[in-house]
Design goal:
Beta-carbonic Anhydrase, Chain A, 5 strands, 5 helices, homodimer, globular
Chain lengths: 173, 173
């Protein structure tokens, strides 16, 4: 059975027990930003039900332009007011060699990628940086309730990163 | 109870029954690209277990530079070889007014956003365009198994979009 056949078969069971439809606007008014990592099941880890939050996921859970675009739409048109950034232990972007990766892509394809590939060195510091970037974004109407957390892929435990989470000015908003 | 307190309480139950840890490299060697929409529970809809696939999610499930960056890392360093793009019915990016949104942000904040906000007009056409964009990306080593599907938020049903899915040259790879 191919992977797509497997998904199609699993989907039949899901449809049979489907609990939806849910409303379009997230009921908890929260957007969660996290890594693409296969070990992160956010519905399970946060106890989510269908229709509760927006989920943004990319390599590293980084606050990229694409995340800011999505979050601006989420807050302005779909009623979210709160953000939770989740980084996780053992992330592939920890210590990622940006320059080496760009050189590898350029050598193989004949041209460097048109995008950056930033890695980071410390998970908690990265959570604080992500939160600070969101708080400084002029296109987000709701920046008072931006939270950060670290998820441990060995245990499933989510730990909020509270200390030293400050606004761009260095004071907690 | 605040939203964060709710998530923390739910996480305690998740930790108590945690089935992990899983391996870092996705066991099914698949990356799924989908929208941030709150009505999409991909673990449920595709019958996923922890550690099986990478999940990339943004507003619209669009194939942005951030998605290409993440997917290049997924394929080159974490062993994925197959991609599934999932767009869904009733998407907020259907008929989205890019120019109007940019003007609104510029008027409120005093400066236009540094990023584009492309909408689309037709879900199936957008699936085909997303698949074509991925197949044409020179930085992805695995472009033979790129699939597209539409998810129906009323029923939970996933329908593969097969017809007219072609390579950049117009022929099915």
């Amino acid at each position: 059975m191919s992977e797509m056949e497997h998904f199609a078969a699993a989907n039949q069971g899901f449809v049979a027990g489907y609990g939806g439809p849910a409303e379009k606007n997230p009921r908890r008014h929260v957007t969660v930003i996290a890594c693409m990592d296969a070990r992160l099941d956010l519905f399970g880890a946060l106890g989510l039900d269908l229709g509760e939050v927006h989920l943004l996921r990319n390599g590293g859970g980084l606050v990229t332009d694409d995340v800011l675009r999505s979050l601006a739409i989420s807050q302005r048109y779909l009623g979210t007011r709160e953000v939770l950034v989740v980084h996780h232990t053992d992330c592939g972007m920890l210590g990622f060699d940006d320059a080496g990766f760009r050189a590898e892509l350029a050598a193989e394809s004949g041209r460097p990628p048109t995008w950056d590939v930033p890695g980071f060195r410390d998970i908690e510091a990265q959570v604080r940086e992500s939160v600070a970037t969101l708080r400084a974004c002029p296109w987000l109407p709701h920046r008072d309730d931006i939270h950060g957390a670290v998820y441990d892929v060995r245990t499933g435990k989510l730990a909020e990163v509270l200390a030293e989470v400050t606004g761009p000015s260095g004071t907690k908003p």
